[in-house]
Amino acid sequence: MRFLTLPPADSDTSARLLWSAAFLVALVWLLTRQPLAVPSWSAVWLLAGAPVVEEVIFRLGLQQELLTRLKSAPVANALTALVFALAHGLSQGTWQSLLTLLPALALGSVFQRSRRVAPCIALHAAFNAIWLAVPLVHALPTFFS
After folding, report:
1. Distance CA 26, CA 30 (A)
2. Fewer beta carbons under 10 A from the terminal one: N or C of the chain?
3. pTM over 0.90
């Protein structure tokens, strides 16, 4: 069964991590429009902290355990995505947080295919960057006037 074993890490992982870190620093700077010495800590958390913590908990923890016990990748992904969305709904207290269900399914699919958490973390950070950028896009006309 393919999903029970994790493949060895790639040799170019450090280069990917370096580029990912540079990308995240640039995003934080762009999103906060403040000097890099005083970043918005909520943006830093959403772009760097939350993706790592949540993907380790939900992919390496819950989804991996469900894959082992249920032997069904689609069911494990669906259950993990549902718990992920419910956790966001309960922690944030808004119904909009349940919109994380579709991205959670996408993250679970990436984990199923790659068997690695790093791509999930990068995609999760990208989803969070989009979430942070949407209000900025609406504010652009007033920013330049």
Report:
1. 6
2. C
3. no
State residue 8's pLDDT score.
Answer: 47
pLDDT in tens, 54-91: 999 999 999 999 999 998 999 999 999 999 998 888 87
Show the tokens assigned to 67. 């894959």
Name the maximum alpha-carbon separation found in the chain.
59
Q: Distance (Å, rounded) from C-alpha 119 to C-alpha 114?
A: 8
| Whether 92 contacts 98, CB under 8 Å | no
Q: Quote the tokens at residue 27.
A: 């995003």
14 pLDDT more than 90: no
Q: Which tokens hold the place of 91?
A: 């922690």
CA 111 vs. chain centroid, Å, equals 12
Q: What is the pLDDT of residue 139?
A: 58
- CA Rg, the chain, in Å? 17
Give the torsion sign (CA, 35, 26, 126, 10). Answer: negative
- For residues 87 and 10, give the distance between their C-alpha atoms in angstroms, rounded to a whole number: 32
Neighbour count for residue 26 (Cβ, 10 Å): 11
Contacts of 111 (CB under 8 A, 6+ apart): 59, 63, 77, 117, 119, 120
